[in-house]
Amino acid sequence: MNKTQAMRQLDQFQIRYEVRTYPIDPSNLEATHVAELIGLDPFLVYKTLVVQGDSHAYYLALIPGPELLDLKRLARVAQEKSVSLVPVDRLEAITGYVRGGVSPFATKKRLPIYIKEGVEDLPLVSVSAGKRGMQILLAGTDLIRASQAVTAPIARQD
Prior knowledge:
- By secondary structure, the chain is α+β, with helices and mostly antiparallel strands.
- The protein has a single domain, classed as YbaK protein.
- Helix content is about 25%, strand content about 25%.
């Protein structure tokens, strides 16, 4: 298997991880579907969302698959008046990744990252490996360390 840039970044941090692959369904790239395909609880599969603040700065937000991003809370912790999701057609230009493959590691340009609080207590979480059809499984504390993320209450259940 060819290593992605995200995996190489984890190697630099000497972080242990596991890679799981799954068949890609372009019509369903949802994290909850990916969880089903790789045999994990959907609350352990984190989706990486790209947002832009009113200052024009970009941020990554990582939340469990079944949850929704609380834009007001994220704006508050990012010290922005407001934030909004970036349109899908701009993801690659900003991160270097396409929808369904946005990883918190090795983005085109280093972006501030916020992860839902509580991830630090999880012995195993999954995030995109930077390529559709590939997930990286690692400890929550290692996800925080390698991504240099800040934990915050940025998610809500519908």
